[in-house]
Amino acid sequence: MGSVLIIGAGGVGNVVVKKCCQVREVFNSITLASRTINKCEKIQKETNNQIDIAQVDADNVQEVVDLINNVNPDIVINTALPYQNLSIMDACLETAVHYIDTACYEPKDEAKYSYQWQWKYHDRFKEKGLMALLGLGFDPGVTNVFVAHAFKEHFDEIYKLDILDANAGDHGHPFATNFNPEINIREITQKGKYFENGKWIETDPLSIHKSFDFPVIGEKEVYLLYHEEMECFEKHFPGIKEMRFWMTFSESYLKHLEVIQNIGLDSIKPIIYNGVEIIPLQFLKALLPDPASLGESTQGKACIGCLIEGVKDGKDKKYYIYNVCDHEKCYADVGAQAVSYTTGVPTMIGAMLMLQGTWMKEGCFNAEELDPTPFLELLGKYGLPWTEKIL
Ligand code: NDP
User: Fold this and answer.
1) Mutation pick for ligand 1 pocket among 6, 32, 35, 40 (CB with most ligand atoms within 8 Å)
2) Residue partners of 255: CB distance under 8 A and separation at least 6
3) Looking at the structure, do residues 304 and 357 belong to the same domain, yes or no?
4) Does residue 325 sit in the same domain as residue 346?
């Protein structure tokens, strides 16, 4: 039994809250805090007032410290934005509370995401006997667990890893992002990067693409992106020689993205508009549909998995592990689309395993450093069944 404080009442926060409510034997007290209190009120109402709510600016460490002292949780789940990771970790250290998040830290003024900042907290968490579990959504998160499972059960050596993420859902909007638009557009408009023979190779944004035949969804064009779990694998599985991350985008998404870039609406450099400083990308975010509102209209499926090549008992082996998720089933379960759902369900399971002691360790960890088996045993039970195939 434990008390949980969830910070961030967006698409993912909504899923985490409602999944925690489904496991009251573990999460006996649930508080949701966020910057905009009426988003917390909406979720509170949808849970039939099973949760407490609070307002917080998570950029302000002292506000988070005061909130934690007030709520007295065993664990803080950060479902706000990557910008808030360090301030919430600082507050957890000050109040001696465990921590979990869904994406690695990113400074507001530079579109550069890396675990380096959060890994530096390892000794401080360890000294305090606390755990910080970093980047446990689906990708990163479950993909890290999939690779750990592949090493544990299927391979002596992995030489090639492709992470493939397809969202074939249709939300009915000409352009919308399935998670926070600002974070999403910063990620996609960055240079791509892949790992080959121990070196990172940079590519122009979305310049490399190919087609891939996804289970259930079928053939889709996938685009090469840099993604943070590859940074973890370089550190924790140094034997992997080749790594690539691929994601699908609809034609309509790419067409709109091109226009947005051409007119500079993706810029994170402040400009003065009518005497007021604004950031074009934040202005664009204010115009776009809120990802938390897309659940009701989204139909179709998403599929995320890892295609792995390596050696077992001296023989070459090719292996694929994946989940297929149906947007409408996610909506029926917790009122969310599949991208929020595939992120929030793993976060809830990670928090559960930490509170139960199964995954509890002192320091900062990524999911591949923990035993994948207990996590994978729960993943299907809580809504994300997975399939593995030897090819
Ligand atoms: P949303 O924008 O829907 O939600 C973010 C929430 O955080 C909003 O409610 C927002 O408040 C709140 N927030 C932002 N800044 C602050 C602050 N300073 N203090 C308090 N609350 C704040 O985003 P998503 O739910 O789509 O994404 C949440 C996280 O999940 C992101 O970090 C994203 O990168 C990550 N993610 C991870 C994935 C994975 O597979 N690992 C996949 C998808 C997302 P307000 O309403 O006031 O704006």
Assistant:
1) 35
2) none
3) no
4) no
Are 138 and 348 in contact by the 8 Å Cβ rule? The answer is no
Residue 81 CA: nearest ligand 1 atom is 32
* Ligand 1 geometric centre to CA of 27 (Å): 21
Question: How far, in Å, is the centroid of ligand 1 from the Cα of 178?
Answer: 11
DSSP 138-178: TTTBHHHHHHHHHHHHT-SEEEEEEEEEEE--B-S-SS--S
Q: Are residues 218 and 312 in the same domain?
A: yes
Same domain for 175 and 312: yes
Domain interval for residue 68? 2-137+338-390
Q: Please tell me whether residues 363 and 242 are part of one structural domain.
A: no
Task: Return the ligand 1 atom nearest residue 138 CA.
Answer: 40
The Å distance, Cα 152 to ligand 1 centre, comes to: 33
Does one domain contain both 43 and 171?
no
Q: Tens place of pLDDT for every residue, the chain, 391 residues?
A: 899 999 999 999 999 999 999 999 999 999 999 999 999 999 999 999 999 999 999 999 999 999 999 999 999 999 999 999 999 999 999 999 999 999 999 998 887 889 999 999 999 999 999 999 999 999 999 999 999 999 999 999 999 999 999 999 888 888 989 888 888 888 888 899 999 998 999 999 999 999 999 999 999 999 999 999 999 999 999 999 999 999 999 888 999 999 999 999 999 999 999 999 999 999 999 999 988 888 888 899 999 999 999 999 999 999 999 999 999 999 999 999 999 999 999 999 999 999 999 999 999 999 999 999 999 999 999 999 999 999 9
| 132 and 146 together in one domain | no
